[in-house]
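pasting for the record
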Amino acid sequence: MNIGTLRYIGRRLLLTVPTLLIVAILVFMLVRLVPGDPAQVMLGDAATPEALAALRAEMGLDAPLWTQFVTWLGHVVTGDLGASIITGEAVGGLILERFAVTASIVVSAIVIATLVAVGLGLTAAAHHRRGSDSAIVALATLAMSIPSFWLGLMLILVFGVKLGWLPVVGYVSLSDGLAGVPYLVMPVLTLAIAESGALIRMMRASAIDVLGLDYITHARAKGQSEPRVLFFHVLPNAFAPTMTLVGLTLGHLLGGAAVVETVFTLPGLGRLMVDAVLSRDYPVVQGCLLFTAAVYVLVNLTTDLLYPLLDPRVRLEA
């Protein structure tokens, strides 16, 4: 790894600091704009004004906003995201525990969606303006148009209720072995179908552009078979733009696939965030949003660094 590459990586890492700081400010202010009082949620409607005031003082909610923010940010810098107002659990441990569930679903779904996109995208490009191309484009458009919550409910109805092949509710961790696999099949399939549409269209468009280049014509003139042309000449260059979209999608979903997790009652990061918003659990909401932003930035940084490996025309410049 040369000095220019190291400088590029270092500069990109430094740029994440102001990004995360701005995110932290926005997260803190937006959470405070949500109607409701955590102290009221904890003590109930029958709480006396004195009890509410005492609890607010104990949680630091009676201090000025800027004081609350500086105190919270100081703890965040040291890795302390605080404790849940509702359960008293450490927010950092709670997020990592839920993130493991989300990651197992999202990564599996993205891998499947990417493999499907590569296969169908290349096939559509190779048969451009033919029947198979139109069918694949229509299939991709349909996948993009179906709401993920409706698709999840239909899978539950068919495979869970009607056929009884898969469990409808509940979750078993993969750490318990193969017993946890049936609980992930429908959530993974839902996300894979929902995200594959855009990836297929991107792969198809990129492959069509590459197929029109001179070196593809030269490869065919040398007598190379069409499958070899597609997989050894078209795929490496056409996949780079698709990988960027994969990175964006992965970063977004790792922040919490709240809809799918709610439909399938999965204890993931998105479900944790939704529950925290409903219960006005400020530390958990703030921690989840900040963690989501950090994951998104890290995934996109990794994608940028991998891009030159697929497209030699792109170089990491300091």
